[in-house]
Amino acid sequence: MKYRMFPAWLTLLSGLFCQMVLADDSALYDPKTKESDLPDKYSYKGQGQPAFIQTLVPSKAQIDINQKYFEICEAELGAFPKETIDCRNAQPILMQRTTSDGKVTRLTLDNIPDSIPRVRDGENQVTFGPDNLASSITTCDKPSGIFRDMKNVGCVPGDRIGHVRNELSNGDQVDWVYICRKNSKFMADEFLYNELGLIGYNRNTGKTCYFAGQATLRFSVETEEEDNKDKSKKKTDIDIIVGKDIPPPKGRDFDKRAVSHWSMPPGGCTSCHSQGPFVRYPFTEQVCLADEDTEKCSLKPEHSFATVRECNHFLYKNRQALPGDYKCKKVMPERQPGMLYSVISPFTDSRLQEHIKDLSSKYKTSQDEYLGEFVGATLEKWHEPKRLAEKQAEPCTLCHAIGDGRYGERFMQSAFRLGQTVPQADYHFRSRLYWSNLSEKSKEAGFHDEKIKTAVLPAKNQGKDSKEIKNAVLEDLSEKAYLLAIQRVKECSTSKDKEPKERCKWEDHWTLEKIKEEPLNYLKANCSYCHDGNTEWRKLMTEADYKENAAIVMRRIQEDNPAIIMPPSGSLPPSAINIIKAYLQGK
C-alpha cells in the first residue's frame, strides 16, 4: 500500500481526532456541527470578536476507534475511579510573579493584559530583541509549556491539575493525572478551558495511556496579526472545553458521549513525554495544603503554593488558625527511581492495529485515499521514547529519566541557568518564549540550581572521613561533575547538531521484560552512581559486588524500610523488586 508519509497523514489525523470541519459529509469524518448558545457567564476579553460558534460532534469512525482504545486501556489500568472528571475538583495552579526585590504578585485574569489569539505558529506575532528575549509580554515565575495567547503567552492564571490514585484488585497502583489549561483569558468563566489532558499510569507494569481532551465548542475569531511589516486580518479558531461533569473514557461501561470529550492522541504525546508518563515541569510542581489524615488537598486558592518551602512557611504561621491538622503535599505523583514505562498506542499495540485496519472495509467513503493512508501509517511506529544512558550524565539521570525528542531539548533550558541569563539564538521558539516569560527573580537562578547546592551535593559529599580538605575536594569534584553532566545532556538532546546526539547512548525504557533480561544493568542504573566507591557508601558496581552484598541491597530497596531515605530505598516498583530478589539469590 502506498501512502504519503507526513502531510496527508497529519491532515487525516487532524480530521479524525480533532474534529476538523470538512466540506464532504462522509461517514468517516461526519463533521456534524450546529450553532450553539454561549455558555453561562461567557465573556470574551481578547482581540477581535467571535464570528460564529459551533458544537462539535465526533464521527462514527472516531467513536469506533476510541471505544477499542478505551477497552484496551481499561484492561491495563482499570477504570477511572470516579463517575466524572471535574476541573472543579482539581488543584488550582498558582501563577505568580517575583521581582528582583523579592516582591511577590499573584496573577489573576484581572491583572494581566487582554489576550491576543495565536495565529498559526505565532512566531510572526512576537518580536525578539538582540538579547533573544521578547519584551512586551507578561512575566511570571513558572511559565506553562503551552502557548496559545501571544500577549500573556505562558503566564495565564486559572489552570488546574488533579491526581487520583487507584488500587486494582490485583494490588497494582494506578495514577491518573488530568490537567485543565486556560491558555488565554478569552473566557472569564472559571470552568471554561482551552485544553484538557488525562494520563493513566500503572506503576507496577509501566503501562501508560494518554487521552487527548476534545473541545466541545469552537468559535472563529478575526484578529490582526502584526509581523513587523504590516497588519493583516487573520481568522483563527478557538476551541473551548467546559471543564465540569465530564464522562471518563471507560471501556466496559462505554458511553459514546465520552468520545466528545476524549480521544486517542494522534501521535504527539511521547515526544514531550519521552522521559516517562509525567513531565516534571516547574509549572506543574504544585503544592497544596492537605488534610493530615485523608491527604485530601484543600482547593482554596490561598492553600495552593509554588514550592514546599512556601507551603511550610504558611503552615508555620497559620497552624493555630486552621480547623484541623494539615501538611504540605505535592499534587503531582512522585517519580520512582527505576520506573517502568510502556506506552499503549496504535503504533505499538497489535490489538489497535488490527482494529484500525478493519476500518478500510467497514467505512467505505469518498475519503478512501486518506483512510488508506491512515491504516498504512498505523504500521509505522509512533515516536518510540528513549532514555539517556550516558555515563557522564549520571548525576542527572539518577533522579531524572532524560528522554529524547522535545523533552530532552527543553529540560536543561527550563531547569538550569549555569551563568546564562539569555537564551541562545538557536533555541526552540517555545524555549525562547519561556525565557522571555520568566520573572526577573527566576532568571537569576534555575529551578534546580539551588536544589543541587543545598540538598543534593551535601548528601553526596559526606566523604569517607570528617577532614575538611577531603570534603572540599569531593565538593569541587562533584560540582564539576554536575556541570559536565548538564553540558552532556544539552549536547545529546540538541536537534540542531545531529552528530553529538548520534554519538550518545540512548536506551529503551525499563519494562518488566527488560529487567528480567538485564537485572544487573537495572541495579547499576539505579544504585551505582551513589555506590561508586567515592563516598562513604559501599561500592556496588559489578555482579560480584551486588551478590556479595545481597542482604544489604535488598534491605535498601524494600518498600517497608523508611529509615533509609536516599534513592532508591523503598521506591523501586514491587514487581521489579521481586525480579531483583530472584537475581541476587541466583534463581
TrEMBL record:
Signal peptide, first to last residue: 1-23
Domain of life: Bacteria
Alphabetic keyword roster: Signal
Name of protein: Cytochrome c domain-containing protein
